[in-house]
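Q: Structure tokens for this one, please.
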Amino acid sequence: MELTNSFDVARSIDETWAVLTDVERIAPCLPGAQLQEIDGDEYRGIVKVKVGPITAQYKGAASFAQKDDDVHKAVLDAKGRDTRGAGNAEAVITAQLEAVDDGTTRVDVFTDLKVTGKVAQFGRGVMADVSAKLMGQFADNLHDMLAQEGVDDGGSDVGGDAAGTVAAPATDTTAGEAAEEPSGPRRIDAPEVEAVDLLDAAGTPVLKRVAPIIGVILVVLILRRLLRKK
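A: Here is the predicted structure, written as tokens:
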């Protein structure tokens, strides 16, 4: 299914581009997502979702298939698998930035999503509603993150580079001694995240549409427990 979302960032296009292409920096802004490690150009982590009584955790990886600094366009390939083997998810996410003015950037996000398993039963209509709500939450979280990092409304960073990160202090090394590069994946010390409730994210209209399905699921779960007791 194809999904289209847009949001504005109150920053210049270059500043917005630097932030949105820094996956480690923006990962905490993604509802239900937790970045766990980085291996070269590959970002690995989990996404937790909940639909009524059903909770799923997708473990997977993402990498940039395209990142064009000149036209401010990025394409991210992501693949994940339900840790209990109940389904898969694949997404090709294309982000195109456009300057509205010197201090505002429009971000258009096009997602080609393929989902199998229990979550897939809700169809494109429900997923579009959920996608729009979650993208709004991401934009709000991004705004809060920039504010907390000390980026003022004019877009200037306090003690940081163009990407908003603070330079690490230099370390002393003996003459001729080269700094050792860490080998293997780099672990990310990120806090546990709560599963994002898709029904809560989509709101009442979606709840009305999927209520019959949730009812059937509850009946099946109850029957299973009764059979196990016997």
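A few notes: DSSP finds five helices and nine strands in the chain. The longest strand covers residues 54-68.
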